[in-house]
Amino acid sequence: MKFFWNSDEKGKSERKRESEEKDELEKTDNSEEEMKLENEPGQAEEIKSDEVDKPVEEKVEKEENGEELESETAEQEEADKNDDSKNDENKLEKILRNIEDIDGKVEVLNDLFLKKIQSIEFEKKTTDRLYKELQEYKNDMYFQLIKPVVMSLVSLRESMKKNLKSFGVMSEEEKSEILQSYIEEVEIILENNDIEIYETNIENDSYVDVKKQKIIKKIETPYEQLHGKIENVLSSGYKYKDKIISPEKVEVNIYKKPEEDLKGE
């Protein structure tokens, strides 16, 4: 018959066997030591003495090592404190230098700001002065431009006042001559200022030009060939350097079919 052990039972058996073998070895070692002690009592006493002194020496050595370690720790802490103090002093010096740099930069900015304000005020004063001078120049320039016309009108007015005193005793022909002289004086004033006077000659069968004439009145005519022909010129036209400033005022013929023709249709 065969028996099968499981792994746990087999392991217990092996451990039991190993324990028994170990106990036998220890008994053998102890018996050998006892024999040696019997044969060598002096050595046994020395060994015991060494075993007693050894812990004491180890204790003293540990105490000395502890004192040295405490001393080194205290020195290291002192050195760390000194390093921290130096680091704090270096940081403080650095902060002070930064503050001095900032103060210097602020002073520079203040100087620049004051200079800018002074510059702005100077520019404003200069601008106001130039504007005032320009206005004065423009006013004077405008008067210089119109001065010839103004002086001519002053002369014409004085002439009219002078002739007006004796105008009532003048003949019709003299009155007409005086009025014509005034017209000629005005024409001279206009010509001196680059004003050109134009007037259409209706005897040449001239037709209306809306760019140069303004139709004031339309005259109906049964003749188709007269449509648009200028019948009368009411006033002259005026140009300044080929630009119409006042168109000629005219009356124009407008064709209209006779009523008889309309009835026949």
Tell me the series of helices and strands, N- to C-terminal. HHHEEEEEEH
- Top-tier CATH class of the domain at 196-265: Mainly Beta
Number of strands: 6
Number of helices: 4
Shape: elongated
Largest sheet: 3 strands, antiparallel
What average pLDDT do the residues reach? Answer: 77
* Oligomeric form: single chain
**Proportion of strand residues:** 5-15%
Give the distance, in angstroms, between the N- and C-terminal Cα atoms.
157 Å
Description of the molecule:
The protein has 265 residues and is of the alpha+beta class. The chain contains 4 helices and 6 strands, in the order H-H-H-E-E-E-E-E-E-H. It has helices at 7-39, 41-164, 172-192, 259-264; strands spanning 195-198, 213-221, 230-235, 237-240, 243-246, 248-255. The radius of gyration is 69 Å and the shape is elongated. The strands form 2 sheets. Strands 1-4-5 form a 3-stranded antiparallel sheet. Strands 2-6-3 form a 3-stranded mixed sheet, with no helix packed on it. Strand 4 and strand 5 (243-246) form a beta hairpin. The longest helix has 124 residues, at 41-164. It has a domain at 196-265: Nucleotide Exchange Factor Grpe, Chain A, domain 2 (Roll), CATH 2.30.22.
